[in-house]
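Q: My labmate handed me this sequence with no annotations at all. I'd like to see what the chain might look like in three dimensions before we decide whether it's worth expressing. Could you predict it?
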Amino acid sequence: MPMLRAISVILCVVSALVYSSPVFSAQFGVFYFPGWSAVAWDPIKSFPERRPLRGFYPQEDKVVARGQIKEMIAAEMDYVVVDYYPNVKGDPERGYVFLDELAHQQEGSGSDRLKFALLLIEHHPKKLIPKDYAGALYAAWGKYFASGNYFSVNGCFNVFVFDPRVLEESFGLAGGGLDDFFEEIESLVRRDFKVGVCWIGGVFDSASSAKVAEDKVRVGGVFGYNFHGDQSGRLSTNFRELHDAYLWHWRRLSRLNKAVTFLPATVGWDRRPWGGSSVPEHDLSVPKTDDDLLLHFSSWMDVLSELESSGRNVHGVICCWNEYGEGSVLEASDGLGDRNIRLFLKAKKSSRFNVRW
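A: Here is what I predict for the chain of 357 residues:
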């Protein structure tokens, strides 16, 4: 009998080793556009199916911000990356209420809170002095870093930079460089928080867009916001073509030798409210059926799990929660309800990311 019990124990252990799923640490997040005002909503009103389920909300409403945070947590988002458009003083031009509500989350345990990170956006080059620019930004950013809810990986605060090329050119106009700016912010963070900063650089369709992110030692990670076509440069004209383009870009991002990679997924592209794409047919790149989007999410999670299994530090990020002007919306709307959230959760439930120990 003792021998049989011993054999039984051994078989149970072997069975557990064979059938247990691996542990995945990749986190899922979403980009957030904080620019909604009465004027901004006007073009969207011509597309009634895009009306948010909560109505055309004012961006600076605390109740809206708190509701969206709860909805993101319910959608199993681990973090949100907030577009940050600085004014001359370094403060956000918009979206500060949403950021403040993210920073002030106190209820429940840490797992009940939504982590958040900043996405620094400068679309056009302009003369910027690295030390002055860093000081102005840090005066606004310090409270977010101090909140306890800021998104970090490997013990470093993640700061996303939409297009490092624009900042490089901007600092160059003042005789400085991107590394000067990075070093100044890093020194302030080390002084106040005793941690580092992981700069996550944006990569776009063009091959040259990855150059700054690759060349700069201080750019520790890469991400994609939106992709529009594959290596041929041709823009997609339906969602399946857009999905195929993303497959190519996922492989491309995975080949960049960076410490962390944020692989993007999309819920579609249709920029007609903002004036339309340069190629009108590109605005047809939206899922026609549930299966279209489910395939995209499932393929994305497969790539993430494969990369993580090979030892890569990878995470997923979706564009976007509320980019109504570009047809990239995870948030519930009149036309789609909560379809996009449901399909994300369905893909996640059927993937290996549903198993966390």
